[in-house]
Amino acid sequence: MNIEAEWMRGGTSKCWVFETQHPQHSRTNWDELLPRLFGSPDSRQIDGVGGATSTTSKAMILSRPEDDAVDVEFTFAQVGIEEAAVDWGSNCGNCSAVVGLYAIEKGWVIPDGDSTRIVTRNTNTGQIIIQRVDTPAGALPIVPDAQMPGVVFPGYKVGLGFQDPAGKTTGHLLPTGAPADVIAAGGTRWNVSMIDAGAPVVIVRAEQLGLDTARYDTWKPGVELQLETLDVIRREAAVRMGMVSTPGEAARAVPKLAIVGPPTGPECDVNVMMLSMGRPHPALAITGSIALTLAARTPGTILNAITGSTSEAVLKLRTPAGVIETWSEEHEGTLLVGVDRTARTIATSIIHLPETLGNAVEASLATATR
Q1: 5: helix, strand or coil
Q2: How many CA atoms lie within 13 A of 370 on its CB side?
Q3: pTM
Q4: Segments of the chain scoring below 70 in pLDDT
Q5: Is-cis flag, bond preceding 141, omega within 30?
C-alpha cells in the first residue's frame, strides 16, 4: 500500500499532510492507519515517518468543502509515540499554518494581491481560522524569507486569525463559570484558571511550583520534577471543564497546561512554559497562545493579575524559543485573535506501508490519496 503525502513545517511543529474527501467521517480508519505510518508504538518511531517527539508526530488531513464560504477544511491528528493511539481532541495552531500555504501551492486558492486570504475550518473544534499568506505581486516569493522565534531557517509568512475563538470545545470561555478556581493535587491546593479559546487550557502560577520567577532559564528542570503532579492537575481540570467524567478519561493533548509568571523585562508581558503531551513544550502551542490571550483580557484570571487590564492589541509571551506576539482585533462584531507564523514544504513523498490494514482502511485511502 502506497500513500502520497507532503511533509511540511508549520511554525515550530512538523506534520504529514494528507488529502481526503471527508476527513471527519473516517477517523476510525485513520486511528488504525496513522500509528502504523508513524511507527507507533515505539519511542523512536524507527519503522515509520514520525519524528519521535510531540511536535513532530502530527498529521493534517485536508479536504475541499462544498461550502463556498470555506476554502479548506482540515482535521488535526496528534499521533501517539509510545502508544498506538491518535488524539483528535484539539487543533494544532502551529500546524494550521501549513493549510493556507498548501492550498496555494496545490492551486486550490489562487494568489490575490500582496496578501492572499484563505478561509479555513478546523473540524476538531469547528474553529474558523482566517489565514493570510504573503504573496507579493500575486505570487509566493521564489525564496521564502520570513523569520520567526524557535525556527532557524525562514519560511513563508502566514498570519492566523482565530475567529471568535471562545468556547469552541466546551461551549464557554470560562468552562467552570469562574475566572479562577482551586484544584487539589499532590497534597496542595492549586490556584488555577481554566480557559477555552483556541484550545482548553489550565493555567498555573509559577510561584506555586517553587519556580524562580526572576530566572526564567531555570524553569524547565523545576517543571520536569513536577510533571506527575501537573498531570494530576490537568486531568482534574478536564473533569471540571466538563470534557470528561473522570480524570482517567482525559486525553493526552487536552486540556493543555500553561505555567505563567511575571515578566522579567520590558520585552515581554508574561513568562510562559506550556506542556505538550506531558513534557515542556520547546516553544508554545499556538492554540494555547490564543487561550492565554483571552485569559489576559478576562478580569479575575491568574494571567490577568499579571498583565493587568490593558487595551493593548498585542500580547508578548516569553517562551523557551523566544518572545511570541499575539494580536487581537474586532471588526463588525467579530473578534479575531491571532499570531503570525511561517511555514514551508519540506518534501513530497510516497509512504510505503508493508502490510495491509484491512479493506475499510484501503477504501478510505482511495479518497485520501491524489
Answers
A1: strand
A2: 15
A3: 0.88
A4: 22-28, 310-311, 356-370
A5: no
